[in-house]
Amino acid sequence: MTRDLPTGLADWRQAPRVRALNDQPLGTIGDHVLCWLQQALRGRDNPVIDAAVRLGNALRLPVLVYHGIAEDYPYASDRLHHFILGAGRDLAADCRARGLTCVHHVDRAGHRERGLVHRLGADAAAIVLEDQPAFVARRQSERVAARAAVAVFAVNAACLVPPAVIGDDVRGRSGFLRRHEPERAGWMAGEDVVPTVAPYDGPLPFTPDRIEELDTDALIAGLSIDHSLPASVMHPAGRVAAQDRLHRLVADVLPGYATARNDATRPEGASGLSPYLHFGVLGPREVMAAVTAAAAGARHKAKFADELLGWREWFHHQARMLDAPARYDRVPAWARDTLADHADDPRPEAETLTAMLRGETRDESWNACQCQFLIDGWMHNNLRMYWGKRIIAMTPDPDTAWATACYLNDRLSLDGRDPSTYGNIAAMFAGSPADNERAVYGRVARRGDGSTRHRDGGAAWLATAATRAIPAVSVPATLPRNAYIGTHTGPGRKATARLLEE
Ligand SMILES: Cc1cc2nc3c(=O)[nH]c(=O)nc-3n(C[C@H](O)[C@H](O)[C@H](O)COP(=O)(O)OP(=O)(O)OC[C@H]3O[C@@H](n4cnc5c(N)ncnc54)[C@H](O)[C@@H]3O)c2cc1C
């Protein structure tokens, strides 16, 4: 990669974040560096933008930041569009404040653009995009890189410690942590790279949407997407809402985090940051800087760091190593085998997809979990573990259980479609093998609702939580098993379930 880069970029401090996605040289006639954002929707503290600006400065070319949203990506809904467009609006404002041109496209009837990234990239000297290990971002990046006539670089913006630093040969989370923990402090420093070239004002092959002036509600109402899933009131879109949550974390949540975080009856004991992290409205460095500077006790900070860095970045690492992070075969073989051995067991707790989707099953606690997904677009961690395990008993076979869990999580949760989605669901389908063989689950451990129900006021809380008014969510005729699985090619990809075994 470095042989094509101008002198001065070869020892780029952020180089471990950067991966060449093709063998093309830098374009000689391009008049800008294209920075294509898919999920890291922030204008500050964004390694993708910084990489593009660094490259642009070295080439004496301006950077053009582009973000687009289609109607036809899996699970497109009012909920996701609201969140994404809100993030996009603030992205545009922050880019402008940094001296960068940022253009948007909202694809819709009468305003369609095909192959826009390719067309924007055709006049670029290079394309800088995101290194995302899951969902459509990864596949789209690989497609752009395969077609581009100029160099395409993928930059990791999701993790504090770039996955390349950890290497491809770690086994299990403890091995991962041994490498990850000593690296963290070294990645906490860093400032936004200042462009030394005037903002791009050249021609564009399309008419951008002026996202700050759009009537988002009216625009979304006219789109061909899932209108049965409304925006989340609990998680408003945009940078201001994200930073409010971060301030709340520092002031109110962190001082009691290590104990309160497990109490689902007090959802305010958790940060609620996962939607903003998933869409990159906040990055892990900004969050960890606030946590490090907070006045909370060391044990609370350490617990938070273990969740945000120790778990979240472990699941990113796993996804990067897998051909298809969302596919059932990532679950360790022993767990798939024992579940398959019991696939024909009677399933007295089976539920219909309609009952599950609407949170109207015979299991009040499960319904309480599902109501959070339906209404808030988020679920408390402690409830997610119960929710995920129970799906195995509620569905006719393990394959359907996996597809159902992924479908519900991906469609309803703002933070779904993420490496943490599939990594955590896989953990629910495996974990440590139980000593006893049980019906339906085999040696996969079951999980009860006692950690919530047996708390003071827990039963009453669950009863209320299970009867919240839910949106009239549409129900598909059949479970969309392949709405998104995705297989990928590229260096270091392995289809192995051993990653989960420790
Ligand atoms: C079955 C199941 C499905 C899940 N699906 C998702 C998902 O789709 N997207 C998602 O981001 N997380 C998922 N999680 C992990 C976790 O439940 C959520 O990240 C967490 O509940 C988000 O709430 P919070 O931001 O208040 O978390 P906090 O407790 O405040 O934690 C802070 C941050 O640490 C990270 N984190 C916390 N717990 C985990 C974890 N177990 N794994 C990875 N990262 C973690 C998140 O980024 C979170 O925002 C799932 C867990 C389970 C058991």
Keywords:
six-stranded mixed β-sheet; globular; Serine Threonine Protein Phosphatase 5, Tetratricopeptide repeat; 3 domains; Rossmann fold; binds flavin-adenine dinucleotide; alpha/beta; 42% helix; 502 residues; 20 helices; DNA Cyclobutane Dipyrimidine Photolyase, subunit A, domain 3
The proportion of residues forming helix, as a percent range, comes to 40-55%
| CATH superfamily descriptor of the largest domain | DNA Cyclobutane Dipyrimidine Photolyase, subunit A, domain 3
CATH topology of the largest domain: DNA Cyclobutane Dipyrimidine Photolyase, subunit A, domain 3
SS-based class:
alpha/beta
- Please write the string of helix (H) and strand (E) elements: EEHEHEHEHEHHHHHHHHHHHHHHHH
Number of helices: 20
The CATH architecture term of the largest domain is Orthogonal Bundle
Overall tally of domains: 3
* Alpha-carbon distance between the two ends: 34 Å
Strand content: 5-15%
